[in-house]
Amino acid sequence: MGLSRSAKRWASTAGLLIIAVVSAAPAIAQDPVYVVTDLGTLNGTGNVFGYGVNGTGEAVGQSSNHAFLWVTPGPMQDLGTLGGFRSTAVGVNDSGQVVGYSTNALGQTFGFFWTDDGGMISIGALESGLNSWANAINGAGQVVGQSTTHRYDQSTARAFLWTKNGGMIDLGTLGGGVSGAFDINDYGEVVGSSATETSTCDHAYFLADTESPMEDLGTLGGACSYAYALNNSGHVVGTSSISGTTDYRAFLWTRSRGITNLGTLGWWSWAYDINDVGDIVGSAQTSPDQVGSEHAVIWIEEEIFDLNDMIDPQSGWVLAAAVAINESGQIVGSGDLGSAKRAFLLTPAAPEPDGDFDGDGIVDLYDHTPFAVCMDGPGIPPQPPEPLTTELCLGAFDFDGDDDVDVADFGRFVTLFGGS
């Protein structure tokens, strides 16, 4: 599923020809595209950060130095630690398996794998390493991250793949000594960053499988690049330094086009996640000022939008970073709610029914036919034949919000009728 109908209309009224519809009325452009949910806290105080979301809207992150899992309608669940004082959850799959990292009683940090029935377990480290960080998990339960490899040399971190049955394997590097893995898709393809033989800085890489070498994705002309996420089409997002400056810009990499600059709101930008329909989320600075200038953003058809312009302006939120997006268009990240640092879940707002079933900008005979098929009320939810669905019927024609399409809705439909 990608962006909601209201999100696409918002983008259209902002002047972008991203979908083939007639421009909506100004009032639609002012309607919030997303509903903001405050994920709360574990103890009522402290900073909260949201880092991951799965396909059902379950979110993970950190609150009061502990990893949390949030399931609608809340509250947060404290996932505990590996015996230490701090833990952070960064990824969750549709089975509710959570990964992240935690300190243990000795102060060492290890990646963890958490399930509702098994709790939190350490995934260990490579060779004789004493630290690891789990960064992502896919639908099959494959975990990727970074691990040190030597007990006394903390500069030897390598990207890894871990499974519960197979343990941890080293994914190699681009020729340098250090690498890290940041995401894995459902096909087992991995992205991250690695030192190279010649570069003075890490480069983003793509790894097709554990039998293949890492592929250097290059940069936007600068020295460094970092790949943070990929979707099931193998499209990669991240950030890269640009030519002639130390500035960074978000990028999209595809096999056919290579690496592309996604632009910014004014200064640096970062792309943190991409879903299967190509919606990309991240953050961008609106000015060189490092304090308060970072805004959460979404790229729609590779055009950047400030997510703060797509929520209720009276909400009290300043969204700073959008870190994860699922296939329903729900977004998790962090921002400021008043004076507090809080985690948010953005859910696409349901558009108000407007009778324009086919989305051509006018209510006409082409909309009358589906209205007649949908009208099963009163008191009976629409049960139309395929390809129509109850959701489509209610979304277009349930003007009074009573979960049916009936004579009362027909009256409103007639007033909107403007074509022949």
Explain what the structure shows.
This protein is 10% helix and 41% strand. By secondary structure, it is mostly beta strands. The chain folds into 2 domains: 32-348, Peptidase/esterase 'gauge' domain (Methylamine Dehydrogenase, Chain H), CATH 2.130.10; 365-416, no CATH class. A 4-stranded antiparallel β-sheet has the order 1-28-27-26, with no helix packed on it. The protein has a 4-stranded antiparallel β-sheet with strand order 2-3-4-5, with no helix packed on it. Strands 6-7-8-9 form a 4-stranded antiparallel β-sheet, with no helix packed on it. The protein is globular and about 75 Å long. The model is unreliable at 4-29 (pLDDT under 50).
Structural class: mainly beta
| Shape verdict | globular
- At CATH level 2, the architecture of the largest domain is 7 Propeller
Number of domains: 2
The CATH class of the largest domain is identified as: Mainly Beta
User: Strand content of the residues, in percent?
Assistant: 35-45%
Summarize the structure.
This protein has 420 residues and is mostly beta strands. It has five helices and 28 strands.
Q: What's the topology here?
A:
Blueprint: H1 5-13, H2 26-30, E1 34-38, E2 48-53, E3 59-63, E4 66-70, E5 76-78, E6 83-92, E7 98-104, E8 109-115, E9 119-122, E10 132-137, E11 143-147, E12 158-163, E13 167-170, E14 175-184, E15 190-196, E16 203-207, E17 215-216, E18 221-230, E19 236-242, E20 248-254, E21 258-261, E22 269-274, E23 280-285, E24 294-300, E25 303-306, E26 317-325, E27 331-337, E28 340-348, H3 365-374, H4 390-397, H5 407-416
Antiparallel strand pairs: 1-28, 2-3, 3-4, 4-5, 6-7, 7-8, 8-9, 10-11, 11-12, 12-13, 14-15, 15-16, 16-17, 18-19, 19-20, 20-21, 22-23, 23-24, 24-25, 26-27, 27-28
